[in-house]
Specification:
The protein starts with a strand and ends with a helix. Helix content is 3%, strand content 34%. By secondary structure, it is mostly beta strands. The structure holds 4-(aminomethyl)benzoic acid.
Length: 245
């Protein structure tokens, strides 16, 4: 997160950290953010999995504030399988959504605690007003060209941009589809950045935070351009269908 504030995982208990082990590279590497949506299911961005890792090389950590420092009460999971959207386009990042099933010996995987809790999905057809204040969180870089990811979870405050300001014209001629939404800080301070991908954009509706976007892409971080998010409301059926046993 560029700008923003350091945060505790208890303020973003749906935030997941996804790690990968590469063939012939020792150790585990931070890969992307994710979002717990059900005890055994995490959403993320399809582009995080373009290296086509086998599921057994992935690890999901819930309940952790410091990116690489285990928390006493954290919950770790291996991945049973992951599903990328069949129409994910690696050139435009259209349909940048992935669903990961956590491995467990029972029906339950994550246990609800102060630091681990599933995010609410929006009701079908939910359209929040332009400029609604939302928050974005992640363990990604503080600046585009920083060599390091953040050592602690951060949160940023961004507003939903009107569709009229979320087109290829506004984003360096990159393709922008209806499956994407834009959010940014009108003060140009807070924004998602590299390594935050796959993580949550949540907005309050009826006194509850709802998952509105998945961090997907942008032109730099915290410049004069908004970040681009996968528009979760367009995938509610895809999510339900793919969570079926
Ligand atoms: C990235 O590379 C990335 N400023 C994610 C979000 C944004 C830029 C880059 C938005 O993962």
């Amino acid at each position: 997160i560029k700008g923003g504030l350091y945060a505790d995982i208890s303020s973003h208990p749906w935030q997941a950290a996804i790690f990968a082990r590469y063939q012939r590279v020792p150790g585990e590497h931070f890969l992307c953010g994710g979002i717990l949506i059900k005890s055994c299911w995490v959403l993320s961005a399809a582009h995080c999995f373009q290296d086509r890792f086998s599921a057994n090389r992935l690890k999901i950590v819930l309940g952790r504030t410091y990116r690489v420092t285990p928390a006493e009460s954290e919950q770790q999971f291996q991945v049973e399988k992951y599903i990328l959207h069949g129409k994910f386009d690696p050139d435009t990042y259209d349909n940048d959504i992935a669903l990961l099933q956590l491995k467990s010996r029972s029906q339950k995987c994550a246990t609800e605690t102060d630091t681990v809790r599933a995010a609410c999905l929006p009701e079908p057809g939910l359209q929040l007003p332009d400029w609604t204040e939302c928050e974005v969180s992640g363990y990604g870089k503080h600046e585009e060209f920083s060599p390091f990811y953040s050592e602690q979870l951060k949160e940023g405050h961004v507003r939903l941009f009107p569709a009229s300001r979320c087109s290829s014209q506004h984003l360096a001629n990159q393709s922008v589809t209806k499956n994407m939404l834009c959010a940014g800080d009108t003060r140009q301070l807070d924004d998602a950045c590299k390594g935050d991908s796959g993580g949550p954009l949540v907005c309050t509706k009826d006194d509850r935070m709802h998952l509105i976007g998945i961090i997907s892409w942008g032109i730099g971080c915290g410049q004069d351009l908004p970040g681009v998010y996968t528009n979760v409301s367009r995938y509610l059926s895809w999510i339900q269908d793919n969570m079926k046993p």
